[in-house]
Amino acid sequence: MKLILGFFLLMGVCKLEAQDIKELITAPIPDSLTADADAVCRLDEKEVEIFSPGKMIVRERHIYTILNDKANDQALYRTGYSNLSSIESVSGSLYNASGKEIRHFKKKDMSDYSADGQALVSDSRQKIYRFTYNIYPFTVSFEEEDEDHNMMGIPGWSPDNDSKMSLMLSRYRLIVPKDYKIRYKLVNADINPSIKEEKGKIIYTWEIRNRPVSIKEPFSIPSEAFHPFMLVGPSDFEVEGYSGNMSGWNDFGKFYAELQKGRDILPDDLKRKVHQLTDGIQDPRQKISVLYDYLQKNTHYVLISFGIGGWQPYDAAYVAKNKYGDCKALSNFMVSLLKEAGITAHAVIIYGGRQSRVFFADFPSQQFNHVICCVPLSKDTVWLECTDQYLPAGYLGSFTANRYGLLVNDAGGILVHTPVYAIKDNTQSANLTGVLDAEGNLKLTQVTRYQALRHDEKEELFHHYSPEQQRDYLKSSFELPTYSVNDFSYKPDYSGKLPVIVENLDLTVTNYAPVTGKRMFISPNVLNRSDVKLPEEKNRALDILFNSEWQEMDSVSLVLPPGYQVESQPRDIALATEFGKYEVRYKVTADRIYYFRRFERYSGRFSATHYNDLKNFYNSLYKEDHVQIVLIKKT
After folding, report:
1. What phi and psi values does residue 466 have, to the nearest 5 degrees?
2. What is the pTM of this model?
3. What is the fold, at CATH topology level, of the domain defined by 4-216?
4. Does residue 257 contact residue 263 with C-beta atoms inside 8 Å?
5. 342 Ramachandran zone, left/alpha/beta (phi>0; psi -120 to 50)
6. Distance between CA atoms of 477 and 490, rounded to whole angstroms?
7. Hey, which residues does 407 pair with through a beta bridge?
8. pLDDT digits (tens, 9 = 90+) for 612-628
9. Are 491 and 443 spatial neighbours (Cβ–Cβ below 8 Å)?
């Protein structure tokens, strides 16, 4: 992908005159920017002006030309506010293809909603306005100015370049007092800002022009690994009377420790309960498990986005009384319980999400959205996800595993890395027994054991969905002709360090093995066929990334209807690549087919030049998972 990068200085995001607007929204768009595009961002402009460690003004302007109905979401404008951030002005306009203004909105015209719809307590809200128009192309423009008093997170630069949207011009401007130390980190681009000093302030300006539609390639590295963007971090900052510094991770940790100070005091009755539960236990890990079990059975998670920008936890006494809290409150409560039992534990600020994000350890900044608990022991470390009421002590799952977090202690903060679950941990093993009748109908039972990261999806299904919802899920889970779910069950086993859930299935599949004349066609891989078939890509641009690794093992035994014998069967196969291994074995007797499959997928980042090898591997896997054994009726 070729980037045309440049820069120039413009003092302030000034109000556009009518003539300027018309020129911007009617200027010809190069063919290179309409190719494969559903929309074109004509202008993406943001200006951040810092006045003090506790105040900044953010101004922005966006202009999008929408080429077809697939990009209609770009005509929706959404913005947020809270007790720390106020919307000073916001407006938008809709223009037809010739540049004539069709509609306009101001702040008073926008709908107002809670920004955290599931939050019990929140001071965050959002305003929304959507333009509707169906004569393409059309153009929308939005302008906004906010006053913000939460300097923990200074808005950075992420040039608008969504999937299927190209970019004509993106500009970012940072204005800071001459004596204020600002920090920034530009990623995936080599561009120097223009820098100018004026009236005691330093003005930095960056600019990018003419980016075509983003590349979408299978199994590719995340967009933050190749899209240009910039992180901006404060040095000194103030939030609601609390002062901090973010120049180093230790300083950031000191700020969060100050927010926690004095919030670990348990009520007397709960102190007695802690000792009743743990005083007779010598093994500290067992003590941790007992108190974690108490937390899980006596509290539940609710979202609370309130207090010091949503960062200060409710104190332990509040959680003890009300039996609920958010991630930071429950983690603080767990730390308090362990402290009473004589065990030192720490809150860890982390990014929570099923997909981890690129983390910049060399740039202290607000890269987090979640809090967990960490208990260092002499020969081990126990990690606790305090918002989950079911996971065993010591297991984090895909939501927070294998990423950096900031551990907060009395001295400040230190970066730590959460556990990585290896291929031997993340296992899925299935045993299927089935009986085929002469019409090709299949009656089967299967028992599948899911462990660690392979357990997570089934754990959510078991604990958070009703039996009716589970049945509906199973009815659409398999690549089969018409089938019915006769019975099913899930049984978790949390007795070990890694969680396990066992799934039992009883299915009837109509016309599973098609019968044509004297022949019956049987697919021995009944329930676990690959659905990944990769396309040809002669000019692969992005590296390949697999964040996690795992293994699958399938054993199948199918009883054949009488009167048939094998006419043809696939060969055994074994593939070994840098991406993983795949092995299949067959055994056919007079009355039964035995099938064994093993698939190992490795984690890692692989060069784009290896895509053809990846394609061959996955397409071979797809082909072998769909092969058939042909039976012929005995004469």
Report:
1. -75, 165
2. 0.89
3. Immunoglobulin-like (2.60.40)
4. no
5. left
6. 15
7. 348, 414
8. 999 999 999 999 999 99
9. no
